[in-house]
Specification:
4 helices; 66% helix; mainly alpha; single chain
């Protein structure tokens, strides 16, 4: 079996239908995770004393910028994984693949041979 680093590039050899379906679920998961992060950050602002959206906040420090970037990247990664799991559930519920094969296809890049061009 080929290592995951080589199998990840197989997504570009998939039929267009499967590639777009996979990307749509992953993008949707990422957007949903970013919306949740935005709501959490917005609520945290008020819990730390900001009374209105126009209330000035303390200037950003390099540490706070680094933590913000790390939080966004981690949230995006978690959203893509959740979107992939939602796609695996969709494939399993629709009967196109078993749960094990669906998780292998969406998370581990073990695509069925019929998905390739």
């Amino acid at each position: 079996m080929r290592p995951l680093s080589q199998r990840m590039l197989d997504v570009y050899r998939l039929q267009q239908r499967y590639r777009y379906e996979l990307w749509a679920f992953q993008f949707g998961g990422m957007l949903l995770a970013l919306l949740v992060l935005g709501n959490v950050v917005y609520d945290l602002r008020f819990s730390f004393g900001a009374v209105a959206a126009s209330t000035p906040v303390a200037p950003a420090t390099p540490t706070s910028i680094a933590l913000s970037i790390a939080a966004v990247l981690l949230t995006c990664a978690c959203g893509v994984v959740l979107g992939s799991l939602a796609h695996a559930a969709f494939l399993a519920i629709s009967g196109r693949l078993s749960w094990r094969d669906a998780v292998g296809a969406t998370l581990l890049s073990r695509y069925p041979k019929s998905w390739f061009r």
